[in-house]
């Protein structure tokens, strides 16, 4: 099959046609990818900030059609339209038993380049392919969907109505689950809350939408990009800040009076996590959504945090449980309360994957969707 392949940092992705895909195995399905978004986490993989081995197929924000069921799968049918989760829950581990599937340890995780049994179901012939030898190919960020097909645990493929366009629904897979989920699940934003969102990419804009759905009164967005600040206003921000011109913490204090109820880092920067701790009120919450390089540490004044009862929490894919949250998000889109269409500012064939990554790095548009 065709796929976009990351091999080493600094080298553009290669679009190749000779990937062998095996399966589905027990409990898995094979899905033909209709569309897959381009997320900053993919860019971080390609730039080496999220260290993964090559050759890897990136892409983790996808939707498609089920084309084959593995043994034991009775929850889906061939022909079902599905949104894919890069973090499917196993349903059996201690976290799943506790009703906390977003940190499931028994299944593949978004950080793993292979299935829990060590296989990837993906390979590529060595050299010309003569002699029958093949090299393993890894699954990027829990999925590997910049490809014509993926193998995925059935629990990670959530059926959606067939009249929802797949090249729109795909952004639910990462950006929208992550952002709306961070606001609604992780932070439990309340009606009347004041929130600060630092970073207005696909993730930050989805946080803005989630906060608006939850009834936030003030949604303050900081982003150095003027076009991203304009987009934020269109998606529900009430105030925008250029952090290169204005002190974000000071301006947030002016707007909110005592500080924000919730501040989100939607960039991936320890400095912004520290700023968030200053920008929230006593008992306020800082949500770490952005994914900085693994070596970054933030500094927390323990005594001050203790006295002010501030909370610092991580949020992986919006603390979502895909089988519960994907249908809810589709429903919000169908009822006109969640705008997915305007988040997608470009569609490109897989062969233009490098141009799509260049656009993301430069902040052109918002979300590009690759159509294999
Ligand atoms: N927690 C999760 O499960 C999860 C899921 C997906 C993505 N992510 C991470 O979320 C982050 C955002 O992803 P994205 O796809 O929206 O990226 P993006 O590149 O589309 O957007 C990032 C935005 O941050 C802005 N920015 C840069 N520096 C800033 C600063 N100092 N203050 C305010 N804004 C600033 C940029 O101008 C840009 O608009 C990335 O780190 C990504 O890896 C996390
Ligand atoms: Zn992502
Ligand atoms: Zn589990």
Model description:
Helices cover 27% and strands 25% of the residues. It is an alpha/beta fold. The chain folds into 2 domains: 3-173 and 339-371, Quinone Oxidoreductase, Chain A, domain 1; 180-315, NAD(P)-binding Rossmann-like Domain (Rossmann fold). Strands 4, 6, 7, 11, 12, 19 and 20 form a 7-stranded mixed β-sheet that branches. Strands 15-14-13-16-17-18 form a 6-stranded parallel β-sheet, sandwiched between helices. α4 (175-186) packs parallel to α5 (202-214) and α7 (248-256) packs parallel to α8. The longest helix has 13 residues, at 202-214. The termini are close together. The mean pLDDT is 95. The structure holds nicotinamide-adenine-dinucleotide and zinc ion (2 copies). One zinc ion binds next to loops.
């Amino acid at each position: 099959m065709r796929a976009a392949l990351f091999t080493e940092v600094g080298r553009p992705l290669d679009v190749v046609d000779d990937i062998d895909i095996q399966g589905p195995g027990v409990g898995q399905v094979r899905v033909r990818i209709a569309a897959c978004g381009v997320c900053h986490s993919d860019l971080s993989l390609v730039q080496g900030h999220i260290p993964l081995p090559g050759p890897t197929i990136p892409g983790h924000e996808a939707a498609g059609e089920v084309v084959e069921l593995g043994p034991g799968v009775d929850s889906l049918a061939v022909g079902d339209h599905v949104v894919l989760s890069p973090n499917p829950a196993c349903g059996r581990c201690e976290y799943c038993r506790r009703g906390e599937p977003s940190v499931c340890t028994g299944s593949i995780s978004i950080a793993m380049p292979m299935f829990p049994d060590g296989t990837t179901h993906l390979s590529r012939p060595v050299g010309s392919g003569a002699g029958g030898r093949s090299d393993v190919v890894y699954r990027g960020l829990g999925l590997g969907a910049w490809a014509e097909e993926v193998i995925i645990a059935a629990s990670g493929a959530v059926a959606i109505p067939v009249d929802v366009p797949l090249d729109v629904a795909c952004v639910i897979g990462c950006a929208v689950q992550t952002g709306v989920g961070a606001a609604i699940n992780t932070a439990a934003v309340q009606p009347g809350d004041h929130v600060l969102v630092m970073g207005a990419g696909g993730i930050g804009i989805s946080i803005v939408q989630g906060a608006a759905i939850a009834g936030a009164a003030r949604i303050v967005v900081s982003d150095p990009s003027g076009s991203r600040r304009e987009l934020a206003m269109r998606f529900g921000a009430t105030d925008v800040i250029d952090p290169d011109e204005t002190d974000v913490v000071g301006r947030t204090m002016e707007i909110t009076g005592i500080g924000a109820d919730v501040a989100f880092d939607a960039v991936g920067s320890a400095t912004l996590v520290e700023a968030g701790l200053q920008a929230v009120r006593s008992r306020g919450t800082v949500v770490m959504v952005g994914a900085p390089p693994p070596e970054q540490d933030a500094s927390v004044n323990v005594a001050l945090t203790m006295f002010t009862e501030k909370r610092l929490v991580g949020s992986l894919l919006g603390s979502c449980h895909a089988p519960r949250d994907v249908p809810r998000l589709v429903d919000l889109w169908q009822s006109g309360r969640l705008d997915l269409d305007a988040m997608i500012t470009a569609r490109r064939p897989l062969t233009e994957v490098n141009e799509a990554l260049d656009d993301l790095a430069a902040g052109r548009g918002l979300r590009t969707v690759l159509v294999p």
